[in-house]
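agent: user wants the full assembly modeled, not chains individually. Plan: 1) parse entity lines 2) check alphabet per entity 3) run joint structure prediction 4) return tokens. Steps 1-2 passed, two entities, 792 residues total. Proceeding.
--- entities ---
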Amino acid sequence: MKQVDGGVCAVKGVRASGIKFGKMGLAVIAAEGSAAGVFTRNKIIAAPLIVTRENLSNNGNGRLAAVIANSGNANAFTGEQGITDAKKMAHILAEQLNVPEELVAVASTGVIGRKLDVDWISEHVGEVVEALDSTPDSSNAAVRAIMTTDLVEKESAVELESGVRIGGIAKGSGMIEPNMGTMLSFIYTDASLPADVLEKCLKQSVDKSFNMIVVDGDTSTNDIVLLTATGASSVEPQVEEFQMGLDHVTVDLAKMIARDGEGATKLIEAQVKGAKTENDARIAAKAIVRSPLVKSAVFGKDPNWGRVIAAVGYSGADIDQDKISLTFASGDDIVLLVECGNIQDSSTGVLSSLENIMAQDEIIIMVDIGLGEQSAIAWGCDLTYDYVKINADYTT
Amino acid sequence: MKQVDGGVCAVKGVRASGIKFGKMGLAVIAAEGSAAGVFTRNKIIAAPLIVTRENLSNNGNGRLAAVIANSGNANAFTGEQGITDAKKMAHILAEQLNVPEELVAVASTGVIGRKLDVDWISEHVGEVVEALDSTPDSSNAAVRAIMTTDLVEKESAVELESGVRIGGIAKGSGMIEPNMGTMLSFIYTDASLPADVLEKCLKQSVDKSFNMIVVDGDTSTNDIVLLTATGASSVEPQVEEFQMGLDHVTVDLAKMIARDGEGATKLIEAQVKGAKTENDARIAAKAIVRSPLVKSAVFGKDPNWGRVIAAVGYSGADIDQDKISLTFASGDDIVLLVECGNIQDSSTGVLSSLENIMAQDEIIIMVDIGLGEQSAIAWGCDLTYDYVKINADYTT
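--- prediction returned ---
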């Protein structure tokens, strides 16, 4: 497996394009194939997700031909009108591309509870479709079109030993604690795989990647991840190989989202091992990266490691405080702070080692619960003045 | 029922005192009676809580004679040494007051994972005991001694129709999402009630008050609430009357904690009704006041009400987006934003009314889920630059 450039356009036959005017943006990706999706578990489900899920599972029989996605308005909590508007988005793209409407996926991101300006989309869809291309720049244009508070364009692609390619784009920066999905991510492969295999692989991959990041603990109404397999390579890869490649792309994109969390200056990786159950490992790792106190301490480079222990304690995971070990690391620096419940003697210089680590851009927090064999990794970012600033005046 | 001054010293026979030097503080409250307590559900339980719980349930047979509490060090995650130190705190106060050691409760708040300076406590306990008094000032000295990042002294007391008084103090500002308990709160009454009745009343009261506040969603290792009934009034009140008075005091103290959340400028009250179950109402109300996005919007006076809907959506409560109604209020101002899933027409000036409300100090967010009869109220505060500032350099 090697990393390649080009985002979704690293995959043969995938065409993309996008435009952005102020807060409004419109992206289109075109490539037909078998497809699978995962969607937000928020009980308020945005209209475009309702339409896409219906198309994917019933009307389109597990196939997609294109995605149309807008930024600037989430089309969420918009009732029947929202459904009508989301269907209209699918309809106008289907007409432009001359594909069946039920093969079009729709996604939106932006303010919740406002009527979508579907006229704006109608007016601009023609020029976006005209610009569809399969260059790396066109993948980049698509991702830029769906960015909101994101500062970084999130693209990742790999080529497997079998020659199969997998490439994806993602957006997401705030309202990030995905639960079966994240803010928009569109992934493509030229592998030849049926929809049911894609769905299984995607669910497994999302559980290790997008579902393991937290920016602020708010789960969006609009989270969606779609995976389309065009079959253009005519290769049917081993599922294990495909899963590994897919995991690489989704974890890569998920980490980009965590690092680009609103106002973030640092990436936090929480590695939990020794848990009794996989769920224990997952909830403990996520509690660490979700804790506003841990996040603030990382921002302030404050070696306040007791907050990590407190977070693991309230996470719900089964623990025994005499079994826990805690280590902080960054690059080649590593410092053991607690070993089986015993705090390391501070006279050995552990706190100054910890201060060095806290000054780095990527902080790895390793917790060994010491009760079992299960492990999990979660990613998050620090909590900064800029997070507050960005979210104190989002709509105004 | 009427409110009275004096905190714990509003209750006849209760003596209190406290001192504070820099970050270290020491408070003592003396009054013997039947007693009950609730403790953190964090699985990392601080040493003083382990000792107090043991004293209260086994050794002391549901009685307490005094409380000793320090700030500056949580004595949490401190192993066997921590237990020894907490027992020593109980021992030295017991000697000073000439009461059995097992009738002394111990509490601590401050940094986690550092050895307690029990010598400092030994050195100062004498002067604190000497200053014990039953004036309002002495209750105030006790609460000041246990404050950490708190800016406001939290005291509340009432006198019931029956003449019974209930008075309490509390501290708490950060690491606040109590779960059966909150940062330290000590409540006294001169009612004549046995420990089992006190325990039942206290649990019920804590569920409506301290368990319904969120500052940052971090549950402390040191949360403790104690209720002692001296019986000095010789009145055995009706349990319903006592419960009402106790609820008044605990809700009053809980709201003070929420309003005094680290860096907070505003109090947020989330009232949820129409839920199918009481748990649904509780988790929906708490999700609103926990959401960093709602909290940031309140700080920035941003009328971004869609974030409230999103929070209710991911709370886990059963909802139907066509049944939800949403109202914001403050003082006499009230604005209906969503009625049974329908967004109010923005041309009627609802957004400017909402902006007026968002500019107030106390914001009430009312959600009617529209599916049942259950309700709950939760309290929180806004998320500000100062929250980040306070927590970015807590230990340094």
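agent: reporting back. Chain A touches chain B through 66 residues (CB under 8 Å). The two ends of chain A are 45 Å apart (CA to CA).
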